């Protein structure tokens, strides 16, 4: 065994074998251990009681870490020699049927579920860089952002008729955030979080506004039934028609100021945002990439009007309020007849081509014929339809590498690709019935803000050992870890790509996991599995601090197909109680660290 370290990364490990989807364990490489950082229900403030399965309450949950942590970001606190950090996590949704004992009152189900949504900020501490982090109860930066928190709308939709309700006749202040999926850490230290499946929280009429295009068409009753108690979740009620228009944005939170007002930036459009990630362009403008996570939806790019100013945090925090919005069109360079709907390469040996960023908003005005600026931003999907953007296989995370400046886009899967009446396979979405997803590499060719780009497919996922049609940039397919349903992407300090997955059990039959992908050199396309999450869990929010040989993941919805009486997972405590979504940290085992001092990096 010779642990590898592509690009000179300090993080050396031997890939783990894939883990069967029935296994309720978190599996890490030989020589590493995992540690619980924080679990659902762990209190952030000492005025709340300790979590107790049998005595849950909304009051406890409001002062404790929420459910289904998805994105997380961990920033070291300056001047603490690496001993303290501030962590942000979002709480995408809830699984009431495994969280709450049978017999919990309907009112408690609603209130505890609502309090388990939202965002958390929590300070962490550790003895030194080789030790795991733990949360600091009552730390000054600790914060829970709940459904009664006021968010300020920024950008052209702030104050517009499309977002006014009877509770907010000015259309500027929204209560809460919903469906927060992935996110990004900005160069100025704030956090972006994507409001994704907001539609599932509302009743709505398909004939009103953009409701149909966004799936706000439920007239029967939502899964959580919040509309039974709070009228604003039934947008058919007079005065609440626009409530769903106030969700579906990129949210920005300043974790360093617990009194700051979180904001929703309407300039980045309204969609089922997976998240957003920023890179500063060559001319100083902030460039944000964001995907709309649904089958046949689009990839978007925002370019700020103003320029980033190093050190001027107050100014930088305004950058997402004003700028141009684009949507991507991908054009393949091989004949359409050569795209067979499998992972079989066309005759030029690559799935690749050129792309255009088509303007939706330019210089503060609508760039789409027949759409006002307000219409583009509240019904961004329809505007993108109108300009002929390329329908993609569910755009999840899209993140630029700060090492190479190339951008990586996870297309998680799309089983309807090529189905009757649906878009056929094309060079950027080359596999029909795309069960396992693919990853696209975008090169802005030296100008991040430009309106053209080059692209190629880095990998088409699957398990070659099971005969799946796959592609790994030419790396031998019998030497990769099988991978399915790429969701979140991240980078280590030397620019290796890390991919976490959501949906592998339904694809290749293994538990979801975290994978490192080599991007440069002869081993480009090599996929190595670093960890596997417990049964029915999704691997989210990877944070790779490879200089510390430390990796964090959010384990979301472990055991989600169970019930309270029939739990499918007991992670992370394995003490007979049900699962608790948890942020974990993986570190080399202390006292048993593999000695690789004789190995030269890379
Ligand atoms: Fe919440 Fe797009 O995954
Ligand atoms: Ca080609
Ligand atoms: Ca996701
Ligand atoms: Ca997903």
From TrEMBL:
- Which protein are we looking at? DUF839 domain-containing protein
Show which stretch of the intact protein is covered: 90 to 691 of 721
Q: Which superkingdom heads the taxonomic lineage of this protein's source?
A: Bacteria
């Amino acid at each position: 065994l010779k642990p590898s370290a592509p690009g000179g990364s300090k993080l050396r490990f031997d890939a783990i074998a894939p883990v069967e989807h029935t296994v309720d364990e978190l599996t890490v490489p030989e020589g590493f251990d995992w540690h619980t950082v924080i679990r659902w229900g762990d209190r952030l403030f000492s005025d709340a009681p300790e979590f107790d399965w049998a005595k849950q309450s909304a009051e406890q949950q409001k002062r404790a870490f929420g459910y289904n942590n998805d994105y997380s970001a961990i920033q070291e606190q300056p001047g603490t020699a690496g001993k303290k950090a501030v962590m942000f996590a979002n709480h995408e949704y809830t699984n009431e049927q495994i969280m709450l004992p049978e017999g919990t009152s309907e009112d408690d189900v609603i209130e505890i579920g609502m309090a388990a949504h939202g965002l958390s900020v929590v300070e962490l501490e550790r003895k030194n860089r080789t030790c795991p982090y733990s949360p600091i109860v009552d730390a000054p930066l600790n914060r829970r952002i709940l459904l009664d928190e006021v968010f300020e709308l920024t950008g052209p939709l702030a104050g517009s008729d499309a977002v006014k309700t009877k509770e907010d006749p000015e259309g500027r202040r929204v209560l809460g955030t919903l469906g927060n999926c992935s996110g990004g850490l900005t160069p100025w230290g704030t956090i972006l979080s994507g409001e994704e499946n907001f539609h599932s929280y509302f009743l709505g009429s398909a004939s009103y506004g953009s409701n149909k295009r966004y799936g706000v068409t439920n007239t029967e009753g939502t899964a959580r039934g919040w509309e039974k108690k709070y009228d604003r979740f039934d947008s058919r009620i007079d005065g609440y028609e626009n409530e769903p228009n106030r969700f579906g944005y990129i949210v920005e939170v300043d974790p360093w100021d617990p009194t700051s007002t979180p904001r929703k930036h309407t300039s980045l459009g309204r969609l089922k945002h997976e998240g957003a990630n920023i890179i500063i362009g060559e001319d100083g403008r902030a460039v944000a990439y964001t995907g709309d996570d649904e089958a046949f939806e689009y990839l978007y790019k925002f370019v700020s009007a103003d320029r980033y100013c190093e050190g001027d945090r107050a100014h930088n925090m305004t950058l997402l309020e004003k700028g141009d919005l684009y949507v991507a069109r991908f054009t393949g360079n091989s004949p359409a007849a050569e795209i067979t709907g499998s992972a079989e390469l066309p005759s030029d040996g690559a799935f690749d081509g050129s792309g255009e960023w088509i303007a939706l908003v330019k210089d503060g005005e609508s760039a789409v014929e027949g759409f006002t600026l307000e219409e583009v931003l509240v019904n961004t999907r329809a505007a993108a339809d109108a300009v002929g953007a390329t329908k993609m296989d569910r755009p999840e995370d899209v993140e630029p590498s700060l090492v190479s400046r190339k951008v990586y886009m996870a297309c998680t899967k799309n089983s309807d690709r090529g189905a009757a009446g649906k878009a056929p396979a094309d060079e950027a979405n080359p596999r029909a019935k795309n069960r396992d997803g693919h990853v696209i590499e975008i090169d802005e060719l030296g100008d991040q803000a430009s309106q053209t780009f080059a692209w190629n497919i880095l990998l088409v996922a699957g398990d070659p050992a099971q005969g799946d049609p796959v592609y790994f940039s030419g790396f031998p397919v019998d030497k990769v870890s099988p991978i399915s349903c790429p969701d979140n992407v991240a980078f280590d300090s030397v620019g290796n790509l890390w991919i976490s997955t959501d949906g592998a059990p339904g694809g290749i039959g293994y538990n979801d996991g975290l994978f490192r992908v080599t991007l440069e050199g002869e081993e480009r396309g090599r996929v190595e599995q670093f960890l596997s999450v417990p049964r029915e869990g999704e691997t989210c929010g990877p944070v790779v601090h490879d200089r510390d040989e430390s990796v964090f993941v959010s384990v979301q919805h472990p055991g989600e197909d169970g019930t309270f009486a029939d739990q499918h997972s007991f992670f992370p405590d394995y003490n007979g109680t049900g699962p608790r979504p948890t942020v974990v940290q993986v570190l080399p085992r202390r006292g048993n660290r593999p000695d690789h001092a004789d190995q030269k990096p890379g």
